[in-house]
Amino acid sequence: MDKDKIFTIKSDVTHGRGYVYCLQYHIVWCTKYRKKVIVGNIESDVKEHLYRTAEDLDIKILAMETMPDHIHMLIECKPQCRIS
């Protein structure tokens, strides 16, 4: 990611029954031995799979950046969602 880029994402606080939350996680995945394999069709397939999985798990992907050897994601989820 470029160091001069700053992402400001307006996130509203969510209210549940008796609690208030705003959970955001910054997740980084690296390929084995940092091999540059996330390119072309693989990149688009990985992004499609991540968006589909996030939708199934009721997770919002606020930002995603793919590099040839790693992926950055900023996600927002409910407290009931286990990050693992």
Describe this entry's structure for a reader.
With 84 residues, the chain is α+β, with helices and mostly antiparallel strands. It has a domain at 24-77: Transposase IS200-like (Alpha-Beta Plaits, 2-Layer Sandwich). The protein is 20% helix and 32% strand. It is built from one helix and five strands; from the N terminus they run βββαββ. The protein has one helix spanning 40-56; strands at 14-15, 20-21, 23-30, 60-66, 70-77. It has a three-stranded antiparallel β-sheet, covered by helices on one side. A hairpin with a 3-residue loop joins strand 4 and strand 5.
Give a summary of the structure in a few sentences.
By secondary structure, the protein is α+β, with helices and mostly antiparallel strands.
